[in-house]
Specification:
This is Metallophosphoesterase. InterPro entries: Calcineurin-like_PHP, FN3_dom, Metallo-depent_PP-like, Purple_acid_Pase-like_N. Keywords: Signal. It comes from Aquirufa regiilacus. The structure is a single chain. This protein is of the alpha/beta class. The chain has two domains: 20-99, Immunoglobulins (Immunoglobulin-like), CATH 2.60.40.10; 110-420, Metallo-dependent phosphatases (Purple Acid Phosphatase, chain A, domain 2, 4-Layer Sandwich), CATH 3.60.21.10. It has helices at 2-19, 123-135, 157-173, 198-201, 251-262, 288-303, 335-338; strands at residues 22-29, 36-54, 57-74, 82-87, 97-99, 110-115, 143-146, 178-179, 221-225, 228-232, 267-271, 308-311, 317-320, 343-345, 348-351, 359-363, 381-385, 390-396, 400-407, 412-420. An eight-stranded mixed sheet has the order 8-7-6-18-19-20-15-14. It has a seven-stranded mixed sheet with strand order 9-10-11-12-16-13-17, with helices on one face. The structure holds fe (ii) ion (FE2). Residues 149, 183-185, 273, 313 line the site of fe (ii) ion. Fe (ii) ion is lined by residues 149, 183-185, 273, 313.
């Protein structure tokens, strides 16, 4: 008898779920080789249930607590495996799936999409998205990194709905793992990490479960994805000690050094919002946030042989030479001193055991576009564009790193290759 009552209660809870409407998502968070968090929102509180399947075997995950913001962990998955899934239903559809990350240690080739300064509801935002949809047809990105200013104007929950979820849901959010970083607009111009809805909407893998050193902070974390170590930092957060990333010290920087020192993967990409070098809509010579990043952080990236630092904030595309020791203003750049690279052809670098300089990319035109400050283009830039939006596709295999900047009109605007033996 007891069993029957329990069963009815359970069924009543699920029945309510069937009447509810999904009003956000589903979207995928903290994807690792063996797990994923599936997030979605319903218009009324319901139980959470996901059906998922691989190779015809259907599994189910249920949480009977009634909520509107649902987070369900699917665990014990197999690496590099595609699971179709569905909320509270077995009616699977082809474009609702998760592909788990490659097994740790795998050098499997991966494709990563980096997007910055996008959620403004503009025609350019949609054109950039369409350009990536078209460009990656048949070879979809495996992971998606966000460079901040994800939802204008103040990172409010309703701004995320209108300018992020309503735009990317169908094409990307239901099947592409996001590893985000926040910008000044996501923080509403503040520096208090308890403020941004960003931290409620997203779940970052901050306990080392996606690889890398545990940070225990959702502001900054790292992910081992195939042959690339991805490090997400937060340029906006002020620590209780008063320190920020741009100060070059504090908890975030201590963690970064530990994380980079522990890394064994062949490629390191560090990403965050405010760039150390830009002359687009923001000027790193005079804006203190960026000037301090240049003066206090670039030597750390060099010391740990970071391959690429990619940021947003400035609504342009800028790509630097591989550089070391350029901590001064734009005018002090001296190619004979600061470029550290062996180039075998234009935009094609080969690096030995001592590495090369760090390449800095600004890709802040995923929605917002334009701007230039005195001195644009920078002396340290190989290529710049402030007239059309775009975003970055990185194809990374064990010995080869290829970055492409795809414009919103579909044209390949810039490209370089690094080969490392
Ligand atoms: Fe910004």
């Amino acid at each position: 008898m007891k069993k029957i009552v329990f069963f009815c209660l359970l069924q009543a809870s699920i029945c309510l779920g069937q009447n509810a409407q999904v009003i956000r998502g589903p979207y995928l968070q903290s994807v690792t080789p063996t797990s994923v968090l599936v997030h979605w929102r319903t218009n009324v509180p319901t139980a959470s249930r996901v059906f998922y399947q691989a190779k015809g075997k259907v599994l189910e995950k249920l949480d009977t607590n009634r909520v509107t913001d649902h987070v369900l962990a699917l665990n014990q998955l197999k690496p590099s495996t595609r699971y179709t899934y569905q909320i509270d239903s077995k009616s699977f559809v082809a474009d609702r799936y998760v592909v788990t990350a490659p097994a740790f240690g795998s050098a499997q080739k991966v494709r990563i999409w980096a997007l910055g300064d996008f959620g403004d509801g503009s025609a350019s935002q949609k054109a950039v998205m369409k350009s990536i949809e078209a460009y990656t047809q048949g070879n979809r990105p495996d992971a998606w990194i966000w460079l901040g200013d994800n939802a204008y104007n103040n990172g409010k929950d309703e701004e995320y709905q209108k300018n992020v979820f309503d735009v990317y849901q169908q094409s990307f959010l239901q099947n592409l793992p996001i590893y985000p970083s926040p910008g000044n607009h996501d923080y509403g111009g503040k520096h208090d990490p308890s403020f941004p809805p960003y931290f409620k909407i997203f779940n970052m893998p901050s306990e080392g479960q996606a690889g890398g050193v545990s940070s225990l902070s959702e502001s900054f974390y790292s992910v081992n994805y195939g042959p690339v170590h991805l490090v997400a930092l937060d340029t906006e957060m002020r620590e209780s000690s008063g320190m920020m990333l741009k100060d070059g010290k504090g908890e975030q920087v201590d963690w970064l050094k530990k994380d980079l020192a522990a890394n064994k993967l062949p490629w390191v990409v560090v990403y965050f919002h405010k760039p150390p070098y830009s002359k687009g809509s923001h000027d790193s010579d005079i804006e203190l946030d960026m000037k301090s990043m240049r003066e206090n952080m670039t030597s750390i990236f060099e010391e740990y042989k970071v391959d690429l630092v990619i940021a947003g904030h400035s609504h342009v595309y800028e790509r630097s030479f591989p550089m070391r020791g350029h901590a001064g203003v734009n005018e002090t750049f001296d190619a004979s001193k600061h470029v550290v690279a062996q180039s075998i052809a234009p935009n094609q670098y080969v690096v030995g055991p001592n590495g090369q300089g760090v390449i800095y990319v600004v890709s802040g035109s995923g929605g917002k576009v334009g701007g230039q400050r005195p001195g644009y283009p920078m002396k340290s830039s190989v290529y710049t564009n402030n007239t059309i939006g775009g975003s970055v596709i990185m194809d990374v295999s064990k010995h080869r790193f290829n970055l492409k900047w795809i414009q919103s009109d579909g044209v390949l605007g810039d490209e370089f290759v690094i080969e490392k033996k």
